[in-house]
Amino acid sequence: MCGRYVSTRAPQEVTRLFGVTDWRSEETLAPNWNVAPTDQVYAVLERAPRQDGGGSPVRRELRPLRWGLVPSWAEDPKIGARLINARVETVHEKPAYRRAFARRRCLLPADGFYEWQRLRDDERGKPRKRPYFLYPADGQVMALAGLYEYWRDPEGEDDDPAAWLMTCTIITTDATDAA
User: Fold this and answer.
1) Where are the alpha helices (DSSP H) in 19-138?
2) pLDDT tens, 63-86?
3) Is residue 2 annotated as a catalytic residue, yes or no?
4) Catalytic one among 106, 115, 155, 157?
5) Which residue, 46, 86, 127, 172, could crosslink 91 as a Cys pair with Cβ 3.0–4.6 Å?
6) DSSP 8-state assignment for residue 36
7) Alpha-carbon span 46 to 93, nearest angstrom
8) What is the pTM of this model?
9) Which of these is catalytic: 2, 61, 149, 168?
10) In whole angstroms, what is the distance from residue 169 CA to residue 87 CA?
11) Cβ proximity of 167 and 66 under 8 Å
């Protein structure tokens, strides 16, 4: 499972690498060497124009989303902190991810991610862990598979854009022995 990752690429580099055609410079995120759940992260999404009858091509966008998927039916956005990862083997079955899996997939650019190795307990019996940073040997950007979702705050005004929250999750699977 991915609990922390690194995202330091400039949006200009991400837009070039992923063929992004729509990015708003006012949505620039600072480099982050310790991305944590509920942080804002870049996501590359493909979306069809809303008021289009199907004539315009799909746009590839770079958007900041909150890491931790909040399903559209959730009563409280706090659930997102527990939905940062979705297992590839069951993502299509789980109610929290099913709609996003069918319609809203994305890529999350990353420089690498952290995995922790459990060490022996300390003198107080508290478990100790050591983080390891895993990254591409060639230094290229990684594209983590993800899903995104829209959640509307029921307390928000109908015409208030701040009433909408866009969130995402990372799709994970078992590690391989690839070198």
Assistant:
1) 95-103
2) 999 999 999 999 999 999 999 999
3) yes
4) 115
5) 86
6) -
7) 23
8) 0.86
9) 2
10) 10
11) yes
